[in-house]
User: What shape does this take?
Amino acid sequence: MSKTATKAQAKPAAKAKASATPTASGAKHNGPALSPHLVVRGAAKAIDFYKKAFGAVELIRLPGPDGRLMHAAVQINGARVMLVDEMPEHGALSPLALKGSPVTVHLNVPDVDKAFARAVKAGAITVMPVADMFWGDRYGVLKDPFGHSWSIATHQRDMTAKEIQKAMQSMGGNPCPDA
Assistant: This one.
């Protein structure tokens, strides 16, 4: 094997471009390989909320004939989040219709306290106040007005898996204080 081939193979997959990602149909998609796609009751209002709460940048908004958003996308902290209006007739139900969601969208930010306060000021509800966590992050959880849970964190210190396990065990079975 040549030196050129060895170097090319050694490049990590994470450095691959997000654009032109093949889909199951073989079509190319210009976006990240994985993006949350949120069903929201009131997607237009959700876009406005995400702008205020998280500094989202609107990428696209495609209303259908009845005015509901068939597809929308925003970018938050460099990540794409897709949205669609709730459409029960097509099985697209929001957390409000389902009375909750088992999914939490996680957002890493430079200043969790500032980001959390901004989201609460915009209308989010605190689920777990920001606190220093055993895994090395300063972390909190909130719920947006549309029923989606968001965890927000700032990484404070690197820890080994062994250190995290030990810190978790010292919590006495409650790894999330104030939760």
Residues 1-19 have pLDDT under 50 and may be disordered.
